[in-house]
Amino acid sequence: SSIPKIVILGAGYGGILTAQRLQKELNYNEADVTLVNRHDYHYITTHLHMPAAGTDSIEHARVPISKLIDEFKIDLVKSAVKDIRPHEKKVILEDGTLSYDVLVIGLGGEPETFGIPGMREHALTIRSINSVRLIREHIEYQFACYKNDSKASRMNFVVGGAGFSGVEFVSELADRLPRLCKEFDVDPGVVHLYNVEAAPTALPGFDKELVEYAMKVLKNKGVSLRIGVPIKECLPEGVIIGDGEHIEASTVVWTGGIRGNRLVEQAGFEVTRGRVAVDEYLRAPGFDNIFIIGDSSLIMSAEGRPYPPTAQMAMQQGVNCAKNISLLIRGKSLEKFRFNHKGTVASLGKGEAIAVVNGKKWKGWKAAQLKKAVDIRYLYKIGGIPLVIQKGRFF
Ligand code: FAD
Ligand code: NAD
């Protein structure tokens, strides 16, 4: 009989971990493994707020996939997935078709706009190398334009949503703006940076004391926090918030949440906000040959609440998924997935962060060192010492 064909869609946190573990686990010629990704690089999503604000280079946030996998063992296909057909066991790419016996969907999520008028059309989002390059250049361009037309709205910047992505990005941008002012000879007094959050608090659900600390850090950096005020509409020049107040701004970055990849819903799986409630082995309901991991999957905690989609979750799922695929093709019974929440570490710009690790709270400089350690650990995990040296940020 022919050897089983395994196709992995997406080389993000989940997909890379699955591919790397499979190449370790499988014996020679035990299966055919293909990894499909839109770009020939993996991006380190958890770093994207830095190149977006311009406080770090884009090259620090991406790695050629060929450096992460063994191309003798895994076929890398650089292409965009257009359609997943679970009943035909086929995936349609922009430039071809793949058939599979076992499929892993790790295509990540996409921005959730909740149908807010104008958001999709006018706001920028932090999702990929290309989207953050656009943010960075857009911001620099506003400074260049301002020196020519003095339009006040060019110096107003709105970040919509104060979840972890919003807070991490707004902190970086607050660090960058004074430097841009110097570079472009702009009076810092004309620059305004807003972070607008609908919930009664920033970082809803996170430790109160640490949220307060984070708010203090942001205020000291000059961020205008608008908490408990929803964005109602996004315009070409700004946002309408709360009871109709218009913040005029040429830059709106939306960090109001994410949902599953639209391809997953398009494939006919039952979804909640684009995410599939997978079974205890990470499989799509009704399909014992399709695994869904990362931001397009939905996992419930023991308390019956959905876990937030994180890199930590996607990586652990990738490890379990690879294990289960090898068990599946060997005809053995699968291992249940259990999420092990190690903690949360969020940066607040240079030298500042907040963290809860193993129930212990950290803030300030120590937490910032912890953040660096977490980032370096990831580089080490996927690429060993060489990757740590190439992409690590030690200072
Ligand atoms: P991703 O890592 O998003 O990867 C998806 C891959 O699929 C990408 O390579 C993409 O190019 C590819 N792809 C997408 N569509 C297609 C297509 N149609 N065809 C082909 N390829 C496609 N989580 C944490 O745990 N800790 C953090 O500190 C943290 N920081 C974050 C900071 C920021 C600024 C952001 C935005 C997120 C952060 N997260 C963090 C969340 C974390 O990044 C995500 O949960 C994680 O990336 C999800 O992994 P994934 O494998 O599902 O998808
Ligand atoms: P999120 O859903 O966690 O936060 C979005 C925020 O936007 C929420 O606070 C929400 O109340 C707010 N919001 C929604 N609609 C709004 C509106 N109309 N007006 C104003 N505010 C509005 O999304 P995220 O921050 O992008 O994070 C996505 C996932 O990635 C989460 O699971 C998060 O934990 C994870 N993440 C983790 C880290 C970290 O651990 N350091 C960093 C970034 C992201």
TrEMBL record:
Keywords: FAD, Flavoprotein, Oxidoreductase
Ranges for domain FAD/NAD(P)-binding: 5-318
A GO molecular function held by the record: oxidoreductase activity
EC number(s) per entry: 1.6.5.-
Tree of life domain: Bacteria
Cofactor(s) the protein needs: FAD
InterPro entries to which the protein is assigned, alphabetical: FAD/NAD-bd_sf (IPR036188), FAD/NAD-binding_dom (IPR023753), NADH-Q_oxidoreductase (IPR051169)
Keyword Zinc: no
Top-level EC class as recorded in UniProt: oxidoreductase
Record-stated family: Belongs to the NADH dehydrogenase family.
Listed name of the protein: NAD(P)/FAD-dependent oxidoreductase
Organism: Paenibacillus shunpengii
